[in-house]
From TrEMBL:
Location of the TonB-dependent receptor plug domain: 124-229
Chief localisation class: membrane
Superkingdom classification of source: Bacteria
Protein name per the record: TonB-dependent receptor
Similarity remark: Belongs to the TonB-dependent receptor family.
Keyword Secreted: no
Domain TonB-dependent receptor-like beta-barrel: 388-970
Protein's organism: Pedobacter psychroterrae
Location of this chain's protein in the cell: Cell outer membrane
Length: 1013
């Protein structure tokens, strides 16, 4: 806290000094002069209140009642002219002293350029549901993941993220469209490269993000677009003076919330009241707060970005370097990342040919926490009366108790590191041809290399060699035996390569009132994944070896040790060949039509289903262009649109997924004696396995009123997935293996999305813009059966807490959404203080309950509403942005709290303070049930940023300078009793808090952005 105060004092001092400097009158450069002019609309009427600014500076004025303006600028400067309800225009200052500038009517938002697949469009010409966010409007803070930058910004985009800097956010668009784990993420397209790795992106390099939500927009990407498409456009160089910019911030993170566990005094008092006491082995006279010992008091983050851009009318260039470092709030975890980018565009042949070359390289060094969730669990349950270390400096452990580990010792005696090198090179050619044609070729190569190392030293292998591993749901917990002694090391190195060549012909032609845009193209993609090797060793002479020099170990002296060569069938070669076409038709800018189709062929599906077809069609009507709306001043823009399209999902499949595979199946018995080396079928062939297909119907409206002061959109959608890919148990009399992967089942998502943007106040000194978005989605499993395979339901996730073997939490069932909680129904306590539950017949019982038989459907993890609210305020040179978001109506199963709710085991593990009034006779208190199903709704003040911009020429050589301070996660309003209500909303088991609660942090940043002349 002292560090934060010191930083804050210094920042305030710097701000004060700069404000003092600002008060001095600094002479303008000699080559600047007064520029006068008038802003009018397309009917030559003056536009009062129009903003006129000098691009790249803080100089800005507003026109008077007659539309006139006066501003100082020099030749070559760019004047940016903005007026609510009109298109933005940029004018280059020449030798002229007076200018008359005409603005065309139309919402600024609707005239923005939007990136779509294999082309661009204006929002006014769109018939699809697409959300666009400029780079300056993305979430700010110590952010290592693109997903977090989009949280709350796009209606229908459900993003959840833990506090772990080394884990990406879970992203679900318009509800889950698949039942396969790891196959719900949207397709990322970076500068036209589909499937590019988002770790290549630094926040400062992002110019805009366009989110393609409905199938009419996304179907052009065919079999990869069922979950939506996120198009990322990075910054490019522009003709003019060389621009050098530097941005940086320094941040301090603190834990935002902790579980209130008993301290030593509270625990002893609780036991004494219940005629019990700690064992001598556990009562060491300490008073340890294990959460404080495992977590850092202050986690430091920093970011530095240096960029260079410029060029001529023939050649433009840009380059940037970014360094990001973030300490995790859990000790020993952090992320260190370096990103370099360079881009070059050259025009030739009288500007008819444009050649582009872009190269990006990312190097990440991530320190992970071995058995992370186990450490987090032990952090809560380890007794406060135990010390971190013994008097002799060794780590304390009570090894008499099973599954009871010193969490600090686990942190310090194991190491896990992942280094990732990612390079992406893209070469593009655009050739303008006669008769409105243009031809594009794009070739890209991406190479990702990972080097992983893990080392568990001699203390770890001797004390924690039977670790209870608790992975994130829906994977079930299990005990992992670390076979080895005197240290165990694992090392692997893999690389993935992705080659893409795409070529397409575009035709833009206008015939009077008719405007046609057509695209036809071809795509070839080859991916080689998991090309590498893995090995392990044990029995090292010293711990200092780590995971290096594995040859120093002697693994063959350890009985039963086997070298870990990695997963079988890991290497993959995936081929994807596609043809695509799209036609857009525009009549008088009133009536819009669009149709597209993509044909995809891939080697990952059955031999009879290699090809898939993904069509779309849509129409739009710009009512504001009709005569009956032209003689009114209320409505500036009004558009109706509707679309229907089909997209596919091929995530998570390898070429061997549909093949008949034989492997080891156990022991072979001969004459009553077991023999090694029994082989049999371990995977069935399915030549008819095909893509999942998601069809989306979308009806929407875009509007702006009061000359653009209020605008927004409304979308209704119906999204249905068919041919769900699920594994089924089959009769081995009919199939070689006991399970078959097949296309069976249907899934539905229906919802509404609303966006409202307004500018309540806008004048020369003060402006306020605000925007709110709201999304509601209803998810439902329609069926899991067909004529061949019959399944009524499927139980999901077994936390396996003590005394609850076989208990599951969720169910996949027709008529219910993904994330439906299916468990016991709590009925209060009996006269003896023992928890009771309802059986299937409604009787109240304390014993004799049966898993599944006595379960009830008690709620689901799907939120009823997602809300994001942005406010931007400017007063002279000060700017303030505040962003809040809310998730409403979802349920969370607090397994962590249930596992801690054990008053009768307080002799051996710590318990929460809230349990102090519970009876130790309650042997049922911790049972997974509706008792621990909590309301997951929350409202979070996600981001607040206050900045000050220094005017141009105050500091010689500096074009602009902005100082700012940002606070993230300032507060959360919620009734949830866990660490944080933002529990993973992705996957097959959303909304389950099961010791996977890497703590959220509250962050304070201090930064600056500066550009040089």
């Amino acid at each position: 806290m002292r560090l934060i105060n010191r930083l804050f004092q210094r920042s305030c001092l710097c701000m004060l000094l700069l404000l003092i400097c600002q008060s001095y009158n600094v002479a303008l450069a000699q080559n600047e002069r007064k520029i006068t002019g008038k802003i009018v609309d397309d009917q030559n009427l003056p536009l009062p209140g129009t903003s006129v600014s000098v691009k790249g500076t803080s100089k800005a004025i507003a026109t008077g009642s007659d539309g006139a303006f006066t501003i100082t600028a020099k030749k070559g400067d760019v004047l940016t002219v903005k007026s609510i309800g009109f298109e933005t225009k940029e004018i280059v200052v020449t030798d002229a002293a007076t200018y008359t500038i005409t603005l065309n009517q139309g919402s600024t938002d609707l005239s923005d350029v939007v990136v779509v697949g294999y082309g661009k469009s204006t929002k006014k010409a769109l018939i699809s549901s697409i959300s666009s966010i400029k780079g300056d409007d993305l979430n700010k803070g110590a952010i290592s993941d693109v997903g977090q930058m989009l949280q709350g910004k796009v209606p229908g985009l459900n993003i959840s993220r833990s506090g772990d800097p080394n884990r990406n956010a879970a992203i679900v668009m318009r509800g889950a469209s698949t039942l396969r784990e790891g196959a719900q993420s949207p397709l990322f397209v970076i500068d036209g490269v589909p499937g590019a790795d988002i770790s290549l992106l630094a926040p400062d390099d992002i110019a805009s993000i366009d989110v393609l939500k409905d199938a009419a927009a996304a179907a052009i990407y065919g079999n990869r677009a069922a979950n939506g498409v996120i198009m990322v456009t990075t910054k490019r160089g522009s003709a003019g003076q060389t621009q050098v910019a530097y941005s940086t911030y320094f941040g301090v993170e603190n834990v935002s919330n902790q579980y209130e566990m008993m301290n030593a005094e509270q625990l002893k008092a609780f036991l004494a009241r219940n005629n019990s006491a700690l064992t001598p082995a556990n009562d060491q006279g300490a008073n340890t707060n294990w959460q404080n010992e495992v977590q850092r008091k202050d986690a430091i983050s920093q970011n530095h970005n240096l960029s260079l851009s410029g060029g001529t009318d023939k050649t433009t260039y840009n380059a940037s370097l970014n360094y990001f470092k973030q300490q995790g709030i859990v000790r020993t975890s952090d992320l260190d990342r370096f990103i370099g980018r360079i881009g070059l565009e050259q025009k030739a042949l009288n500007d008819k040919l444009k050649v582009g070359l872009n190269l990006s390289n990312s190097i990440s060094d991530a320190d992970l926490v071995p058995y992370r969730n186990t450490v987090l669990s032990q952090m809560l349950t380890y007794l406060p009366t135990s010390p971190v270390k013994n008097p002799d400096g060794s780590y304390f452990d009570n090894l008499i108790q099973t599954s009871y580990y010193n969490p600090v010792s686990m942190l310090e005696n194991a190491t896990e590191n992942l280094k990732t090198k990612n390079i992406l090179g893209t070469f593009t050619i655009n050739l303008k041809l006669p008769f409105g044609f243009s031809y594009d070729v794009a070739a890209s190569y991406q190479n990702t290399q990972t080097i992983y190392g893990a080392f568990y030293n001699s203390i770890y292998t001797s004390r924690y060699n039977n670790v209870r591993n608790t992975p994130d749901p829906p994977a079930n917990p299990s005990f992992v035996s670390l076979v080895g002694k005197d240290g165990l090391a694992l090392r692997n190195a893999y690389q993935n390569t992705n080659k893409i060549v795409e070529t397409y012909l575009t035709w833009n032609k206008k015939f009077g009132d008719h405007d046609i845009n057509a695209v036809i193209g071809y795509s070839y993609q080859q991916s080689l994944n998991n090309d590498g090797l893995q090995t392990s060793a044990t029995n090292f002479p010293i711990n200092q070896v780590g995971y290096y020099n594995l040859s120093l170990g002697n693994p063959y002296a350890v009985t039963d040790f086997r070298v870990n060569y990695g997963p079988e069938y890991l290497y993959q070669e995936i081929l994807l060949i596609s043809d695509f076409a799209r036609v857009n038709y525009n009549y008088k800018n009133k009536y819009l039509l669009q149709g597209s189709i993509r044909k995809d062929g891939s080697n990952v599906f059955g031999k009879n289903e290699k090809w898939g077809y993904f069509p779309s069609i849509g129409a739009g009507w710009n009512l504001d262009q009709e005569d009956f709306l032209k003689n009114q001043s209320l409505i500036s823009t009004l558009k109706l649109r509707g679309s229907y399209g089909v997209a596919g999902n091929s995530l998570g499949f390898a070429p061997l997924s549909t093949k008949l595979i034989y492997g080891a199946v156990g022991q072979f018995y001969y004459n009553g004696s077991p023999r090694e080396g029994a082989y049999g079928a371990i995977q069935n062939e399915n030549p008819n396995l095909r893509w999942e297909k998601t069809a989306t119907a979308n009806i929407g409206m875009d509007f702006s009123i009061f000359k653009g002061r209020l605008g927004g959109s409304v979308d209704f959608y119906d999204k249905r997935t068919t041919d769900l890919i699920i594994g089924f148990d089959v009769d081995q009399n009919l199939y070689p293996s006991g399970q078959l992967t097949a296309n069976v089942g249907k899934l539905s998502n229906k919802g509404v999305e609303i966006v409202l943007n307004g500018t309540p106040v806008s004048n020369d000194n003060f402006s306020w813009t605000t925007g709110i978005n709201l999304a509601h989605n209803v998810n439902k499993v329609l069926t899991l059966s067909d004529s061949q395979f019959k399944i009524d339901d499927r139980l999901i996730f077994q936390p396996d807490g003590g005394g609850q073997s076989g208990a599951t939490l969720q169910i996949l069932s027709p008529g219910q959404p993904i994330g439906t909680f299916f468990t016991y129904k709590y009925a209060g306590k009996d006269a003896n203080g023992v928890s009771q539950y309802y059986d299937a017949a409604g009787n109240i019982k304390t014993q004799g309950l049966l898993n599944k038989t006595d379960y009830y459907v008690i709620g689901n993890a799907q939120p009823k509403a997602l809300i994001g609210w942005t406010n931007n305020v400017r007063y002279k040179n000060f700017d303030l942005s505040v962003f809040m978001r809310a998730v409403l109506g979802n349920k969370i199963m607090n397994v962590t709290r249930a596992d801690l709710f054990r008053p009768n085991t307080a002799q051996f593990t710590n318990i929460p303070v809230e349990v102090e009034n519970e009876s130790t006779a309650d042997f049922n208190s911790y049972r997974y049930s509706s008792r621990f199903l909590e309301n997951g709704s929350y409202l979070r003040l996600d981001n607040a940023t206050l900045g000050y911009t220094i005017k141009k020429n105050i500091i010689p050589g500096v074009g602009s300078l902005r100082l700012y301070t940002t606070a993230n996660n300032l507060f959360v309003i919620t009734g949830y009793k866990g660490i944080d209500p933002e529990i993973n909303q992705g996957g097959l088991a959303p909304g389950v808090d099961t010791n996977n609660f890497y703590p959220k942090t509250r962050t304070f940043l201090f930064g600056l952005n500066v550009s040089f002349n």
